[in-house]
């Protein structure tokens, strides 16, 4: 457990952000936003299980955290494979302790090998939607289902799901992705209702254009980047740390009275949306 009880009124900010004794599972943490989230949670004292279905990426990030003095293990698994998720959660429980923080970060916006064809939705087939729904929605359902018995049993837990502005306001041409991310936000709100009495919070962080390897096609194209940023009040591309800082706050004792919310981290894009 953390150094700060949920009822504490005198805690310092450092105590409120202290994750000592917590066990975090971060999905899709082999690179990009998820890797930074894993490093931030470890830096605050959490033992971190680094998930990615690309095992070498998960091993690399877990190794970096250990080199920096933190506690981390790699738990490769495909979040869309429920039995594999359950095994991963059992392994985390055995090696680090029961998961008290779940960050659903793994996502597929079309860059993964299993991604549907792009094009008008009215010309699409179910096979084009399935990969988006699988990772961005079914994966979140699977991971929440796997960790929640432990959280409910202990009377403490944090669920944080990384969604997208596409899930908040919708994105033309990304209908299945938008629907899946919006679905994940709906799931967090529903879980917030059912889990509040167990001191388990459930929130989303909705991020805008963020500089990760997967988004290099956009962030490496100055003209395209300028076009996207014309809708942002703060005209820079997001950094993984922008999202990771908010996720860390929601995962910490500082977030104990915040649940059922979606936080936009997007340079003010949401003001006009
Ligand atoms: N980068 C952006 O601009 C942006 C914008 C909006 C939302 N997001 C969301 O933020 C999250 C992180 O984005 P990112 O750009 O860092 O992603 P990324 O593609 O750079 O990294 C995601 C990681 O998840 C892993 N992964 C993919 N499918 C998986 C699965 N089924 N099981 C386990 N691991 C899996 C990948 O191997 C990869 O290492 C995603 O949910 C994404 O949808 C990103």
TrEMBL record:
Keywords: Oxidoreductase. Its EC number is 1.1.1.100. PROSITE patterns: ADH_SHORT. Coiled coil: none annotated. The keyword Repeat does not apply. One of its GO terms (molecular function) is 3-oxoacyl-[acyl-carrier-protein] reductase (NADPH) activity. Belongs to the short-chain dehydrogenases/reductases (SDR) family. This is 3-oxoacyl-[acyl-carrier protein] reductase. It comes from Amycolatopsis magusensis.
């Amino acid at each position: 457990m953390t150094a700060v009880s949920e009822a504490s009124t005198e805690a310092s900010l450092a105590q409120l952000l202290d994750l000592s004794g917590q066990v975090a599972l971060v999905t899709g943490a082999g690179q990009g936003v998820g890797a930074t989230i894993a490093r931030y949670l470890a830096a605050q004292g959490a033992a971190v299980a680094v998930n990615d279905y690309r095992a070498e990426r998960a091993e690399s990030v877990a190794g970096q955290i250990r080199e920096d003095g933190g506690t981390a293990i790699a738990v490769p698994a495909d979040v869309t494979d429920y039995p594999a998720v359950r095994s991963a959660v059992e392994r985390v429980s055995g090696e680090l302790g029961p998961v008290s923080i779940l960050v659903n970060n793994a996502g597929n916006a079309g860059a993964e090998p299993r991604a549907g064809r792009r094009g008008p939705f009215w010309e699409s087939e179910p096979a084009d939607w399935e990969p988006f729904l699988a990772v961005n929605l079914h994966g979140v359902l699977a991971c929440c289902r796997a960790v929640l018995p432990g959280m409910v049993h202990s009377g403490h837990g944090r669920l944080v799901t990384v969604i997208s502005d596409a899930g908040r306001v919708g994105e033309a041409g990304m209908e299945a992705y938008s629907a899946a991310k919006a679905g994940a936000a709906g799931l967090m709100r529903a879980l917030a209702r059912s889990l509040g009495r167990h001191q388990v919070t459930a929130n989303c962080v909705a991020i805008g254009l963020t500089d990760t390897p997967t988004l290099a096609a956009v962030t490496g194209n100055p003209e395209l980047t300028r076009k996207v940023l014309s809708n942002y009040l703060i005209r820079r591309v997001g950094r993984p740390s922008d999202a990771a800082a908010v996720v860390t706050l929601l995962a910490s004792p500082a977030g104990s009275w915040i649940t059922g919310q979606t936080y936009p981290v997007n340079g003010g894009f949401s003001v006009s949306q």
